[in-house]
Here is the input.
Amino acid sequence: MSAGAMLPDEVRQQLDMLSLEAERPLIISDADEVLLQFVRALESYLDEQGLVLRLGSFALTGNIRDRATDTALPGPEVRDVLQGFFEARTGHIDPVEGAAEALAALARRAQIVVLSNLPFHLAEARRRNLERHGMDYPVIANSGGKGAVVAEIAAAVRAPVFFLDDIPRNLASVAEHAAHVVRMHFVADPRLARLLGPAEHSHVRLDTWPEARQYIERRLAEGDG
Here is the structure.
């Protein structure tokens, strides 16, 4: 079965609306903790629910706790909390410092697509949130691994493709399905960044947008992106 055949109908419908230039370099970026300050927004939401995030590991299950009892929420409750967070806050998350400026500079040479795991019906809210912060780019909402989606998007161009994500399993998925894509491990929140070393399946680990911009520009200038 091809990677494209694995895509959910909701993702396929979004990809069918995507228009890319075949000869222009492509940057595919995650949103949470790459373009948007997910953890800080989540902490604010949890505080309103009587909960707290204790960053003892690079995970949410086990680290979201009842503030009064310090008891960790079980997995199903964590999923419910995250669903509530996305519904309430997707349209209102602050940007990562330097993201808009770096992408604006890179957009002079490359096309940009945002690939974000969130409920499909919130894709437009995410797009509008990014647009308000100076990042007006196509948004593809996804669920699960990102490799098949990246492979499908990357197949539309005959130019260097870069992928940025904070979660190692997404980088591994892209390595499996689209090995030619340059994979950049990026974790914006310094507290999270300290909890996780460079992902095994990444080409580089960079945690600030000035560094990421410089790396992409250098690869493009070298012509080996």
Notes: The mean pLDDT is 95. Residues 190 and 208 are 10 Å apart (CA to CA). DSSP finds nine helices and eight strands in the chain.
